[in-house]
Structure formats: C-alpha cells, structure tokens
Design a protein that fits this description.
Low-confidence stretches: 1-22
Order of helices and strands: HHHHHHHHHHHH
Number of helices: 12
Helix content: 40-55%
Largest sheet: none
Radius of gyration: 27 Å
Mean pLDDT: 86
Shape: globular
Distance between the termini: 84 Å
Number of strands: 0
C-alpha cells in the first residue's frame, strides 16, 4: 500500500503534470514574409546593391536596367560554368530557368539612382586612347567600335547586349581578361572573346580606364532591338532573342 504522504505527492504531481500537458501550444504566427521578387533577391543586395544599383566594390557590377535577355544569359552562364565565380556558381546551381528569368526581368526593370563615379587614376593619354577605341574601334585589327554594339550612349542594346556605364576599371579589365583566357565564355559565336583576344594589354587598360570615367545617366535604358546587322556575329544576342531567352 502506498503511504498517504506518497499518495498525496503523487496526486499533486499528477495534477501539475496534467496542467503542464494541458497548456495550449503557442499560436503560430500567421504573418509571412512578402512573396515578392524584391524580397527574394535580398541575397543579391550585399554584392550588387539595392535593386541592383551597384556598390563601391570594384568587382561587383551594376545590374539595374541591363537588358533582361543579357542578365538571363549571364545567370545561365554562371549555372553552367561558362562564367566562373564560385559564390555565383553555388547560389545558382539548382534554380530553375523560369526563376532565373524572373530575376533577370526584375533587375532589368529597375532604375535606382546611380552611384557617383570616381575618376580612375590613369594618365590622360591612356583615357584618350580608350575613348578612341570605344568610339572608333581599331580598324587595322578589324575591331569595331564599342558603340557599334553597345549603343551610341553605351547603355546597351536589346535583347542581349549590356550597358557599359557605371563599371570600375578593374572590373572591365578583369572581364576582358576572363574572355581572353577562357574563364568567361558565351554562346558561340563568342564575339567578345574574339575582341578581347585581339586587344593588347595596354589597349585593354585604355578601354577600361575610359569607360570608368563615364557616369550612369538617370535614364539608363538599353536601345531597342533593331534589324541592323551588328559588325560581328554575336551568339549572346541571338540566344537572348530565342524563344525563352536561351537556345
């Protein structure tokens, strides 16, 4: 037989236990994070700035306002390894093409205020040489002017050619170098690989220095796609124009 004291204690503990287990579970918050592309792309802000505005770091470019077809091509290139940068390769590895297309459309539609441009520390003669190449090309090397493909104002051309404004000299130089050495490739025919491989190191430095002097205009929008033939066959432009934005 259980002593009366033990029985009393058991009854008390049982009552307390019943009260503990009878406590209702805390209510689960019903409020959810907004399911918007702006919320979904917050992971991009640290490197590319709010709404793709850009940041002070020289190696992270402005995304806002670039053609959606171009941005989509680049996301696919990172996913497939044609552009090699481990954080981007990892982040995009398992995202479906439809989602990448939504991301590209989102950043293409943005027009945040641009960052101020800091003049590069380059000799005036180097900047002048870069301006000449950008505006006139190098006829003796059969390299067209940058403006012939990227637009007279260098704001890009729909559907797949990016603007070249608001980029730091080191970033431009690094991308041209990546094309030259095969760590960045595009859908064939890879017109930028041909251009970059033909430029000399001083010419690359000159183009990069000049482009870095150019501010982003308030209306940083690419020119509309047209039927005029580009000076070079460019697979990225063709891919961006394909149904779904990718061959």
């Amino acid at each position: 037989m259980v002593p009366s004291r033990c029985l009393t204690a058991l009854l008390v503990l049982s009552a307390i236990g019943g009260q503990v287990y009878a406590q209702p579970e805390p209510a689960v918050p019903t409020q959810r994070a907004p399911d918007t592309m702006e919320a979904r792309t917050l992971a991009c802000v640290g490197c590319h700035g709010d709404k793709g505005r850009g940041v002070a770091n020289v190696y992270f470019p402005r995304l806002a306002g670039k053609p959606a077809g171009y941005l989509y091509n680049q996301l696919i290139a990172f996913q497939e390894g044609r552009r090699r940068y481990a954080p981007m390769n990892y982040l995009l590895a398992y995202l479906p093409p439809s989602y990448l297309k939504q991301m590209a459309d989102y950043f293409a539609a943005q027009s945040p205020d641009p960052l101020p441009v800091t003049a590069p520390d380059a000799p005036a003669a180097t900047v002048a040489q870069g301006q000449q190449i950008v505006a006139k090309g190098l006829p003796d090397k059969k390299i067209p002017a940058c403006t012939a493909c990227h637009g007279a104002a260098l704001t890009g051309r729909e559907p797949g050619i990016p603007g070249l404004l608001g980029l730091r000299a080191d970033y431009v130089s690094a991308q041209l170098g990546a094309w030259r050495y095969g760590t960045r490739t595009a859908v064939a025919p890879d017109c930028m690989q041909m251009v970059a491989a033909t430029l000399s190191e001083p010419e690359v430095a000159a183009v990069a220095a000049y482009l870095a002097t150019l501010p982003v205009p308030q209306q940083d929008k690419p020119v509309a796609a047209d039927t005029a033939q580009l000076p070079l066959a460019c697979g990225s432009q063709q891919a961006a124009a394909a149904p779904g934005g990718h061959p």
